[in-house]
From TrEMBL, chain B:
TPR repeats: 107-140
The species this protein was found in: Acidilutibacter cellobiosedens
Record domain J: where: 3-77
Descriptive protein name: Molecular chaperone DnaJ
Domain of life assignment: Bacteria
Gene Ontology biological-process annotations: DNA replication
PROSITE patterns: DNAJ_2, TPR
A Pfam family assignment: DnaJ
Keyword vocabulary terms for this entry: DNA replication, TPR repeat
Length: 288, 194
């Protein structure tokens, strides 16, 4: 479901590129140190983005260390360390992965899920006390989402993506707390969450139809052409994110976040749309 | 809606002159500017709204038999006006309830539903409703504008992405050249040797 919120590399400065890698490796290290080795496979860019975004509200410069990493034995890596936003993001990563796996087991009886779920359950208990509410939030909102999906009487993309938008908004705001920017951060998270949900559903559309799985977009489109509609909705959500970001007082990571919202999201959309187009052309060629 | 004659404090069947006079007097009395730093501000605004509604109603229906209590009040235009105010005032729940209570779905209904969705950030709903409103009444400038604005906003957002990597020297030169031409045509000069 994840991994769509990334920067557009070609417009990124080297220093920002290295910084992102630092956060990425830092998050991986937190997962390893605080939870265990197995969870490191679940690391994904959406959660890294969360850490980068939330850390931007912290005035202190991040601390770095250079070290070896077992996955990259030859070259030393830079890690962001002792960072609250990273610790928080790590607990989100654990809880999200756990509930995603539960869903996989329910949906497709996945073996991988059955193997991983008891391990993750143990990890859940290791989430620091101050972030325990994350787990409940995720469980509640995902249940709401699955309930809405199984009802399947919505004709509106906004309505379908609403619970996931709310979830993302809550995850971002609960770290920052009810301060001045609460509403803006909520709005950014809400739109980003909906963006993730829709692009993910759109990306998996053909696969889900083939495997007869639920897909949000398939449930609203009734066979009509949907590309333009998806494009419009995704662009609108992305625009809302970028506009909101503009009004937020950030202490650091401004360039990275600007890049993600003005280039990264659109590039991801381009890529997904292009993939669909190529797939279609390939199919046509085959039939000729 | 209350009986408009009662709101304006006049007799039923009053002439147009009388209605106007009563309206102007009440406006002076309840004008929100007079209550700007006053706890009664909300009350005054509410009252002002009632007065406006009553006056508009009587003016619109002056050629008919006016307002009658026996006839059930089902004027949608009135309700639409309230919905508009609700949306502008961010009272989205009220607006939604009122919209759901209307059975006849004309262009304005679709337009207002679209506006409500837009306020909520529900762009899929906003787009389809604005589109329906616009196609039902293509001559209505308001509907057309709302529909077009939705699209242009996205174009502006896409611009930096579309132009990425285009800041080359050639473009800089043409920009300077254009600026110079413009300055010269106004009688000034931007770059002397050009």
């Amino acid at each position: 479901m994840f991994g769509y919120v990334t920067p557009y590399k070609m417009e990124l400065k080297i220093k920002d590129y290295e910084k992102i890698k630092g956060y990425y490796c830092g998050l991986c290290k937190v997962l390893k140190d605080n939870y265990g080795n197995i969870i490191r496979i679940s690391l994904n860019y959406d959660v890294v983005f969360m850490a980068i975004f939330l850390d931007a509200f912290n005035k202190d410069e991040p601390q770095y260390t250079k070290n070896n990493c077992i996955l990259h034995p030859i070259k030393k890596r830079i890690f962001v360390i002792n960072n609250d936003a990273l610790n928080y993001a790590a607990s989100i990563n654990i809880a999200l992965t756990y509930y995603k796996i539960l869903d996989d087991i329910k949906d497709e009886n996945s073996l991988r899920g059955k193997f991983l779920s008891p391990i993750l359950k143990r990890y859940l208990k290791k989430i620091p006390a101050e972030y325990q509410n994350v787990e409940n939030m995720i469980a509640d909102k995902l249940n709401e989402l699955y309930a809405a999906e199984s009802k399947g009487n919505s004709s509106n993309l906004d309505e379908l993506s609403h619970p996931f938008g709310e979830l993302t908004a809550l995850l971002l705001t609960s770290y920052v707390g009810k301060k001045d920017n609460y509403e803006k951060i909520y709005n950014l998270g809400y739109n980003l969450g909906r963006w993730i949900y829709i692009i993910d559903a759109f990306d998996d559309l053909e696969k889900d139809i083939k495997e007869n799985k639920f897909n949000a977009i398939n449930s609203v489109m009734n066979g009509e052409k949907i590309e333009d509609r998806i494009n419009f909705v995704l662009t609108s959500y992305g625009r809302e994110c970028a506009e909101t970001l503009d009004t937020l007082p950030l202490y650091k990571n401004q360039d990275i976040l600007y890049n993600i919202f003005t280039f990264g999201l659109l590039e991801k959309m381009d890529r997904v749309f292009l993939k669909k187009k190529n797939d279609k052309e390939e199919k046509n060629e085959k039939s000729i | 809606m209350k009986n408009p004659y009662e709101v304006l404090n006049i007799k039923e069947g009053a002439s147009e002159e009388e209605i106007k006079k009563a309206y102007i007097e009440l406006c002076k009395k309840y004008h929100p500017d007079k209550y700007s730093n006053n706890p009664l501000k909300d009350l005054a605004e509410e009252k002002m709204r009632e007065i406006n509604e009553a006056y508009d109603y009587l003016m619109e229906n002056k050629n008919n038999n006016g307002y009658s209590n026996k006839k059930e009040y089902t004027n949608d235009t009135q309700l639409f006006r309230e919905i508009r105010m609700d949306i502008q005032g961010s009272r989205l729940k009220e607006a939604e309830e009122k919209l759901n209570s209307i059975n006849s779905r004309n262009a304005e209904w679709y337009f207002l539903t679209g506006a409500l969705y837009q306020r909520k950030g529900w762009y899929d709903g906003a787009y389809s409703n604005f589109q329906t409103a616009y196609s039902m009444e293509p001559s209505n400038m308001e509907y057309r504008r709302a529909f077009e604005l939705l699209n242009t906003a996205n174009n502006n957002y896409r611009q930096p992405y579309g132009q990425r990597g285009n800041n080359d020297l050639c473009q800089m030169c043409t920009t300077l050249y254009c600026m110079d031409c413009l300055c010269e045509s106004m009688g000034g000069d931007f770059i002397r040797c050009m």
